[in-house]
Amino acid sequence: MPVTIRDVARASGVHISTVSRTFSAPHLVNPETRVRVLACAEDLGYRPNRAARALITGRTHNIGLIIADIANPFFPPLIKAAESQARHRDYHVFVADTNEDAAAEEELVHALAKQVDGVLLCSPRMSNSLIEQLSREVPLVVVNRQLAGLPCVLMDVGQGARSAIEHLAGLGHREIALLGGPRGSWTSRELRRAAGVAARAAGADLTVLGPNPPTEHGGLAQAEQVRRAGVTAVLAYNDLMAIGLLEGLDALGVAVPGEVSVVGVDDISLSRLTRPKLTTVATPTAAAGRTAVDMLLQQDTDLPRTGRASGAAAVAVGVRRTTAQVMLQTELVIRDSTGPGPYAGRERSGATAAGPGPHRRADPGGPRVAAGDVVAS
Amino acid sequence: MPVTIRDVARASGVHISTVSRTFSAPHLVNPETRVRVLACAEDLGYRPNRAARALITGRTHNIGLIIADIANPFFPPLIKAAESQARHRDYHVFVADTNEDAAAEEELVHALAKQVDGVLLCSPRMSNSLIEQLSREVPLVVVNRQLAGLPCVLMDVGQGARSAIEHLAGLGHREIALLGGPRGSWTSRELRRAAGVAARAAGADLTVLGPNPPTEHGGLAQAEQVRRAGVTAVLAYNDLMAIGLLEGLDALGVAVPGEVSVVGVDDISLSRLTRPKLTTVATPTAAAGRTAVDMLLQQDTDLPRTGRASGAAAVAVGVRRTTAQVMLQTELVIRDSTGPGPYAGRERSGATAAGPGPHRRADPGGPRVAAGDVVAS
DNA sequence: GATCTCTGTGCAAACCTTTGCAGTGAAGTA
DNA sequence: TACTTCACTGCAAAGGTTTGCACAGAGATC
Predict the structure, then answer these.
(1) pLDDT tens readout for residues A266-276
(2) Which of A234, A296, B344, B373 has the greatest CB tally within 10 Å of its CB?
(3) B5-48 maps to which CATH number?
(4) Strands B331-333 and B279-282
(5) CATH of A157-284+329-376, one of 3.40.140.100, 3.40.50.2300, 3.40.50.720, 3.40.190.10
(6) What is the C-alpha to C-alpha distance for residues A243 and A263, in angstroms, rounded to an integer?
(7) In 3D, which of B270, B235, B284, B276 has the Cα closest to residue B256?
(8) SMART domains in the record, alphabetically (chains A, B) (predicted)?
(9) What pLDDT score was predicted for residue B257?
């Protein structure tokens, strides 16, 4: 029932190889023949079988995108950017969700391995050694995790944490909590490290609460702890948790930013919709998606193909993998969930402790994110 | 470099067919041989090439999921439910985003056709006739669109609209606006139809505004129109638009629900987080995902396979497609964005016009969605 | 008129599996 | 003993495509 290259060949009176060339190397076939073949193909509704093509060329023109949780609004912009970038290069993206489950991640890499030309591993939860092992099976680009020897796209959450802590300290907060993210998250570790350093430098105390599930509920569940900890400011692992915390504090009757200031990370679109609007560290999510696809496709063109069509040239060059690591910048966006703390006005007053008036608002639009720098290669 | 069945055969001293059987029909091979082969496979890190397998069996064990917009929080629960249901049956799901673009939808169906065993088309934007045509290329299940002769999973938004309008009319609203969804959306048409009927029955006027992009911004952009239309209540195409409208009205200084009541559709998790919390028509998104996968896989096992392995039995049965259409129930969840209207208390007072006190709150948890009914088959 | 170049096409192998069929030898049956 | 049955394994074709190589014929060159 499905029409193959053979049917087209029969219909147009040429050999199947000519039909094949009509599609994959049109310049090699006589214009007259070409139009005839194309007409027949059109007539019969022929579409090249990509799986069969992949079998011999070693190129599927698909890339896999493994995501911890599609429901986390952090990811969709990344997915969309990756998809549009891939489409430009005539690639398709297959997205798979792991439910924050390390075992599912491994499973999926294996399942995808032979059906895609490479995989983007976003915010993986599995161990470094397992990732390295899997990278021998299929080209990998890792997002939100630093891994020696593998191409990585990172967001400078360390810098973001620093900015956030400095912002809070500048507002007069000295007792700050950090709501940690999920176990196994590189971002969470990085955030904690940088926040610790920044807090020490600013003379503030940092209490770490967690690990927590990186969801609204994870934040909500910590509201009680936050109140008990006696802190006046909180930096959350991500916006979702920050928003949950906002909810939880509201339910407990704790005023934000009156009694407690809250800062998130990611700047998901939702963070503009809460009351109060969320101060947050904007991460360049879309840029990360684009960059990761670029790096994967770059690596892909460098690498020899697996099919019989492997060029001798590629072999001569050897398996020289590009392992560039890109760090993308983050930026603090100040909205309404942060306000003066108990030490407002004392020492390092600066521009921040400008009285009880309205806080600085982020300008509503425009690009906020700088281009990434290559950090290592 | 990649290890194939042949390498395993060589290593374990058997024919490739024995290796093949070790994986796909273990009971046909001697236990001793089996363990030896498995050991060798393990040693060499062999993994069956699913693409090659698909070429001959005609079964990829993948299903495609085409989504209008991953960033719309309506979809992730559907995706996750579909994914988990598929995983149970040893299938993988490839998600693709079309950016609300009909042309991209067609593109993607073609691209996926030979790499999956079937496609779930969610809230498609393309024409019925095109969908029908594509369904000849690959098994299709359509979600959120009724289409004769094709298996469909629908949500009873008509009933939802009716409940919403009755709720509003009961609260004393007589001038109601409907914020329409995107052009080409079956749900939007259905909503409009049912809302019109219900409004007439309740003696209320219905003003339709739209079509609009089904996003937060689409709702926000209509705030001005809503105010100008002089309505006291609005039913929005989905929660995202309702939330945008909440924003817009807030910016215009219009109180919700004091001056205008707002109802959304979908009950995305976000709708519990707005101020005021959103009254909305809950749609059984996860159930839809599960059901759609079930229907697709059902159809899949019925249909003869394309590969040479096609059983004669299937042919004897003939191409009997299951074209069941399932309608899932919706339910109105009343929160804080709806309140008494100008005609509150006059006639049909009921339980709704209980003075200016707090409105009814939805209970926070528990299942709200009934199981689906088969409507036709 | 012989040789060369070039364009267009056909041939057949290869990619990695699965599976119907046939063959082997051992155990069971008459 | 001769026959059947059975469990296991090998053989080879098939699935749809790509591509190196060979070849035919046309035109150009000397």
Answers:
(1) 999 889 888 89
(2) A234
(3) 1.10.260.40
(4) antiparallel
(5) 3.40.50.2300
(6) 9
(7) B276
(8) HTH_LACI
(9) 96
Please check the confidence at residue A285 and state whether its pLDDT lies above 90. Answer: yes
Question: Scanning every residue of chain B, which has its alpha carbon at the shortest distance from the alpha carbon of A310?
Answer: B1
CA–CA dist A192, B163 (Å, integer)? 49
Return the pLDDT at B299.
82
B269 vs A contacts (CB less than 8 Å): 71, 216
Of B92, B110, B113, the CB nearest to A96: B92
Beta strands in chain A (DSSP E): 62-67, 92-97, 119-122, 140-143, 152-155, 175-179, 205-209, 233-236, 261-266, 279-282, 325-328, 331-333, 373-376
Between CA A161 and CA A191 the distance in angstroms is 6
- For chain A, which residues lie within 8 Å of any Cβ of chain B, measuring from their own Cβ? 1-2, 45, 47, 49-52, 54-55, 60, 62, 70-71, 73, 76-77, 79-80, 83-84, 92-97, 99, 108, 110-115, 137, 216, 243, 247, 269-270, 273-275, 306
Residue environment code for B128-146, b if the CB has 16+ CB neighbours within 10 A, otherwise e? eeebeebbebbbbbbbbbb
Other Cβ atoms closer than 10 A to A118: 25
B51:A51 CB<8 A: yes
Beta bridge partners of B63: B93
Interface test with A, best of B67, B83, B101 (most A CBs within 10 A): B83
Residues of A in contact with B274 (CB under 8 A): 273
- Classify strands A325-328 and A373-376 as parallel, antiparallel or unpaired: antiparallel
- Give the class (CATH, top level) of B157-284+329-349+358-376: alpha beta
CATH number, domain B57-152+285-306: 3.40.50.2300
pTM above threshold 0.70:
yes
Quick one: residue B18, left, alpha or beta (phi over 0 = left, psi -120 to 50 = alpha)? Answer: alpha
- As given in the structure block, the two tokens for residue B13 are 């001293």
Contact check, Cβ <8 Å, A111/B92: yes
Higher pLDDT, B91 or B361: B91
| pLDDT tier, A300 (very low <50, low <70, confident <90, very high otherwise) | confident
Intervals of CATH 1.10.260.40 along chain B: 5-48
Nucleotides of C under 7 A from a protein CB: 7-12, 14-20
* Cα B375 off chain centre by: 18
Residues A285 and A85: beta-carbon distance below 8 Å: no
The count of C-alpha atoms lying within 13 angstroms of the C-alpha of A367, restricted to the half-sphere facing its C-beta, is 8
Q: Which residues in chain B have Cβ-Cβ distances shorter than 8 Å to A60?
A: 51
Per-residue pLDDT, A347: 54
Q: Flag whether pLDDT at B310 surpasses 50.
A: no
Cβ burial of B28 (10 Å; 0-12, 13-18, 19+) is exposed
B1 with A274: Cβ contact below 8 A:
no
Out of A73, A110, A115, whose CB is closest to B115?
Answer: A115
Res. B273 pLDDT band, cuts 50 70 90: confident
- Which of A102, A140, A135 has the alpha carbon at shortest distance from A120? A140
pLDDT tens readout for residues A144-172: 999 999 999 999 999 999 999 999 999 99
Q: Which residues contact A152 (CB under 8 A, 6 or more apart)?
A: A141, A142, A143, A145, A146, A325, A326
Locate CATH 3.40.50.2300 in chain B: 57-152+285-306, 157-284+329-349+358-376
Lowest mean pLDDT, pick from A224-238, A306-320, B156-170, B249-263:
A306-320
Going by pLDDT thresholds of 50, 70 and 90, the confidence category of residue A301 is: confident
